[in-house]
Amino acid sequence: MTTPDIKPKTKHRKIITHDDIMADFKDFVLTQDHPCMMAQTVFSQDHLNLHTYDEFPSLETAKKIYKDLKKYIENYDFDSNEFYTFLAVFKGQDSFTEIQFETALWKQLELLHQIDDQAWDPKVSDDPQDKNFSFSIGGKAFYIVGLHPDSSRKARQSPYPAIAFNLHWQFEKLREMGIFTTVRDKIRERDTELQGSINPMLEDFGENSETRQYSGRKVGEEWKCPFLHGKE
To answer: Is the pTM for the entire model greater than 0.85?
Structure first.
């Protein structure tokens, strides 16, 4: 089997600033009434930690993301009920097919893992085939959400290719607060209203490996996660 070409299409356009990208994402989430209320809350409260990068995927970008993520983790208040999201936006590229984006996403995560000097979060599995797997970076587990303009899921059709890093702790906090099920069901209901059907990849943590959800592409039972390097 040949490796899919992960080079995206590119086009000429004006220089894009950080403020331009933030405005475009606010439009995507707030103005267009994104189905995820958690995302809307993060944006409306200015709790988005947005960083822009050029090459995707690349080792140089991995080093920059890792540095920014470590700072994000260090500054996070785990005693608070307030949620913050880390969003890595790749402004150097315009569009990917779903296969190209999936390949690029896992390559970028692989490169991040290779430079990570922290042990895997012990609260989750490091085996991508395990139903309790969650991606770990800087010693903390994250649920990964891939976003790009050409996703088949409308809720993932972001203005630029991006990866959202959502702390696994946030979902546990929602359970602790007794609102996880209510929030989950409302998001799925709103996503169905937007698309006409629920995202077929969505499952609760512990039902199946969450790796199947990361890129947003619909995958079959035969799909195998390309990420193979759990921490020893």
So the answer is: yes
